[in-house]
């Protein structure tokens, strides 16, 4: 992963002797993609669970951005005794929950690429925040199964801090 926010945090942790795990979700940025057809939100969740269960000790502070914040909330709900706190930077939670967003994405593509995606094929596209990203209808449909509910939010016992810019053109501030 080569994202400025994560790199700055990593440098801070190294400089101050704090343990640090930088998780790059499969199909995003520099992660290896063994089979682009298999990139899934479910796999992202399973991988994040594995990291918490097997690669860390003691209470964890999760620092996340965009869809990573969604994952952090899922982790805080699932592991209330392991997650000490969360810091979400520009969180993207419960994104792509309706078909209008999916259709909007398709409308922005050339006709050939849109036809491939409609046929169930994944696509790689450049995202200004992370480099290349893999997306598919399957992936977007899977995201719906991971919607954060009010019940899950009530299960989160740790402090949750959110940092979000207000002068961002692609996010409505209400």
TrEMBL record:
Transferase found in the keyword field: no
Q: Which Gene3D superfamilies match?
A: alpha/beta hydrolase
Q: Which UniProt keywords apply?
A: Hydrolase
> What GO terms fall under cellular component here?
mitochondrion
Q: Which InterPro entries match?
A: AB_hydrolase_fold (IPR029058), ABHD10_acyl-thioesterase (IPR052382)
Q: Which GO terms describe its molecular function?
A: hydrolase activity, hydrolyzing O-glycosyl compounds; palmitoyl-(protein) hydrolase activity
Kindly provide the name given to this protein in its UniProt entry.
Mycophenolic acid acyl-glucuronide esterase, mitochondrial
* Organism, as annotated: Amphibalanus amphitrite
């Amino acid at each position: 992963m080569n994202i400025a926010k994560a790199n700055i945090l990593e440098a801070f942790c190294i400089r101050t002797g704090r343990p640090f795990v930088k998780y790059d979700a499969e199909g995003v940025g520099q992660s290896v993609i063994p089979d682009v057809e298999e990139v899934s939100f479910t796999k992202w969740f399973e991988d994040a669970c594995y990291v918490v269960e097997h690669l860390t000790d003691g209470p964890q502070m999760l620092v996340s951005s965009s869809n990573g914040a969604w994952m952090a909330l899922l982790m805080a709900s699932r592991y209330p005794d392991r997650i000490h706190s969360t810091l979400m930077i520009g969180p993207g939670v419960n994104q792509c929950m309706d078909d209008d967003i999916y259709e909007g994405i398709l409308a922005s593509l050339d006709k050939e690429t849109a036809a491939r995606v409609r046929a169930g094929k994944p696509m790689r596209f450049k995202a200004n925040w992370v480099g290349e990203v893999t997306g598919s209808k399957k992936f977007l449909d899977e995201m719906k199964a991971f919607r954060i509910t009010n019940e899950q939010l009530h299960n989160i016992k740790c402090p949750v801090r959110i940092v979000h810019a207000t002068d961002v053109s692609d996010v409505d501030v209400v």
